[in-house]
Amino acid sequence: MDSTARLQPSLNSSYVVLPPGPRFSSEEEEEEEEEYGKDPVRSLDGVPLLAANGLTTSGVPLAAQHSPKDSYCLVYISFFLMGIGSLLPWNLFITAKHYWLYKLSNNTGGGGEEPRSDLIDYFESYLAIASTVPSVLCLALNYLLVNRLSPRVRILSSLCVILAVFILTTVLVKLDVSEHQVEFFAGTLASVAVVSGASNLFTGSVFGISGLFPMRISQALISGQAMGGTLTAVASILDLAATEDVTNSALAYFLTADFFIVLCIITYLLLPTLAYSRHYMLVAKCSGPGAMTEGAGGPSAVSSASIPPLRPILRKVWVLGLSVFYVFFVSIMVFPALSSGIQSVDKASGSPWTTTFFVPLTSFLLYSMADFCGRQATAWLQVPGPTSKALPALVLCRTLLLPLFMFCNYQPRDHLHTVVFANDLYPILFNCLLGLSNGYLGTLPMIYGPKVVPRELAEATGVVMSFFLTLGLALGSAFSVIIVHGI
């Protein structure tokens, strides 16, 4: 077997056994240099590193063999920030519940009961459908474009579309739509669909390029997404406490979103200037589908415009993909359509905790913080492994969370009148459990996926894993409508 075949496993994978040959981990290189000294011509097993054409025998330039360190963790921070921006639009739309209720009910008097209507009662469910269904289509499109359109074009164009829609949303905050509530409702859902499609094109593309890096970079991106949810929940609570005018609160809220989207654009543009990032992109370029290799059968090349082969990817990651699908399928059925409707059992007391702050704190903030903790935990603990049967078993166990939330004090209840967990501590406990399990069990398959396939399929695999995630969100959001109508 020649040296080209020996370099097929993904970069820095802890789960793919690499035979003797050149390595790409800077830690391994440092240990080798200490014991054997630097030798740019010959590897430790005696195989020449340089071919006659000036490349290494693996077809990768010698410069790409020496991985620089991530100075000051700038690449990690960059992907963390892009993770925040990738889910910030969705998190903002679902967390600004009081603003949407104000716009759809025109109830500015305060102190009275919010009027009942289908637009208000089922707004989160409609929002979830409008957000996730276009996402599936855009991620499928992203897979077809992964070798036809550069990540730079896909990422920057999607961010510009998101920014344009959010600027429009910011302008509408101060406009009176009381005479056009149905039109505002339809326009909001259309905006959500556009933002969702663009943000998932952005997310899928960023997930794809993160698969070219070591596992810690994918973990940074996923943790950043959870931090985006936490930041929006904190901002919402602070706005509720600081001002009684919900439009002023929403204005500051959406201006913050505009800032983070611009920050994402700047961060991505600066990414290629970092040596650590350039190194892994160079390795990916040299070993990717468009790279020329010399094998026993002579020169061969795969057109860079071809669609990545789906069958070998699914053969490796179908269990991981289904695990991601079911994790988010269960989560979106519960959060936010069901969990945000759970009210304090002492709401009649009229205290700020039971009326104003109960839902933002117990549903949005606690869930987002627990989700972030679960995702961050995967940086230190990666158990069970990608081939373990315990991983899908734990994912299936999350199904039990659904009846737990249904029998809390969800209001209004039209069909299922029994409240089993009639204490405010129960939704707090259940939201923490939902967030922790979503963060941990949802992150593990996502970071495993691009590392169990050949390096040239890593970017496409990242897009495929994002597709499984979004498909779970889409189907889960549809089921959430049925569950909410059935309670």
From TrEMBL:
InterPro entries on file: Eqnu_transpt, MFS_trans_sf
Any one GO MF annotation of this record: nucleoside transmembrane transporter activity
Bias kind Acidic residues: ranges: 27-36
Tagged with keyword Ligase: no
Domain of life of the organism encoding this protein: Eukaryota
Assigned keywords, A-Z: Membrane, Transmembrane, Transmembrane helix, Transport
Keyword Transport among record annotations: yes
Compositional bias ranges of the Polar residues kind: 1-15
TM region(s), chain numbering: 73-94, 126-146, 153-173, 185-213, 220-238, 250-271, 317-338, 350-369, 428-448, 460-484
Region named Disordered: 1-43
Subcellular location: Membrane
UniProt topology in membrane: Multi-pass membrane protein
GO cellular component: Golgi apparatus; plasma membrane
Entry similarity comment: Belongs to the SLC29A/ENT transporter (TC 2.A.57) family.
Listed name of the protein: Equilibrative nucleoside transporter 3
Organism: Merluccius polli (Benguela hake)
Lineage: Eukaryota, Metazoa, Chordata, Craniata, Vertebrata
Gene: SLC29A3
